[in-house]
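Re: [ENG-882] Designed sequences occasionally contain unexpected residues at chain ends

Forwarding the minimal case from QA. Structure tokens:
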């Protein structure tokens, strides 16, 4: 049954058979899609098409997919799902560190792919509705959810990647409360072996200067999830 989702999903995949399979699966669930054989073709068209999500293969013919992911996250506000035959752990970790929202290895199960696509789109929808949200102040830091800017106690301004910004917003909305990995990932069926949220938390801690061994702000609650240990105030 189609969900009649009219947002565009861009596919960067050099294998026509895989691209057709992806297109068929997405079409069956009501998603519009556009296929690009190379990473360069995708990057040229993103400013024109404004896709809600890019599904990127790492083994592209013209450039490494990780470079494409990096450029998308630096220059465009859309979700990124890596879908690749490269199941190397270091590739997955690096992809998530670069800001990808999720990582799947081929061959894929169609319903799992659709579930992950929906999960990413839900997270972006939620954040888009809150673009006018007030500024968050915590422990000398200032975070602007609209621009993803993070200003430190020293006045130095930095800009977070999309995945980092959305994770920080979730933590700031519910300070001093444990949030499970499922809550932070926006899905109820996160695999126990999935470390994507842990990678994002680690990256966010670096941005905040939080000691990974004895974090002061984003604390790990073993067996439960993560907690923002700070008082948070919101203002214009």
């Amino acid at each position: 049954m189609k969900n009649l989702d009219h947002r565009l999903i861009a596919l960067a995949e050099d294998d026509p058979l895989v691209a057709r399979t992806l297109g068929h699966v997405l079409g069956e669930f009501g998603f519009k899609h556009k296929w690009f054989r190379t990473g360069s073709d995708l990057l040229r068209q993103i400013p024109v098409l404004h896709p809600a999500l890019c599904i990127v293969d790492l083994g592209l013919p013209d450039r490494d997919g990780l470079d494409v992911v990096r450029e998308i996250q630096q220059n465009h506000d859309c979700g990124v799902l890596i879908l690749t035959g490269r199941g190397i752990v270091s590739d997955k970790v690096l992809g998530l560190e670069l800001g990808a929202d999720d990582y799947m290895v081929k061959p894929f199960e169609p319903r799992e792919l659709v579930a992950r696509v929906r999960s990413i789109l839900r997270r972006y929808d939620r954040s888009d509705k809150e673009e006018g949200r007030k500024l968050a102040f915590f422990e000398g830091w200032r975070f602007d959810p609209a621009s993803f800017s993070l200003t430190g106690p020293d006045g130095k301004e930095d800009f977070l990647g999309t995945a980092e910004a959305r994770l920080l917003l979730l933590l700031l909305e519910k300070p001093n409360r444990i949030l499970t990995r499922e809550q932070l990932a926006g899905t109820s069926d996160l695999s126990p072996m999935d470390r994507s949220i842990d990678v994002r938390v680690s990256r966010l801690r670096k941005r905040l200067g939080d000691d990974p061994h004895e974090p002061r702000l984003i604390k790990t609650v073993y067996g439960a999830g993560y907690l923002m240990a700070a008082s948070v105030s919101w203002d214009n």
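QA comment: On inspection the terminal residues look reasonable. Residues 135-235 form a domain with the Arc Repressor Mutant, subunit A fold (CATH 1.10.10.10). Proposing we downgrade this to a documentation issue.
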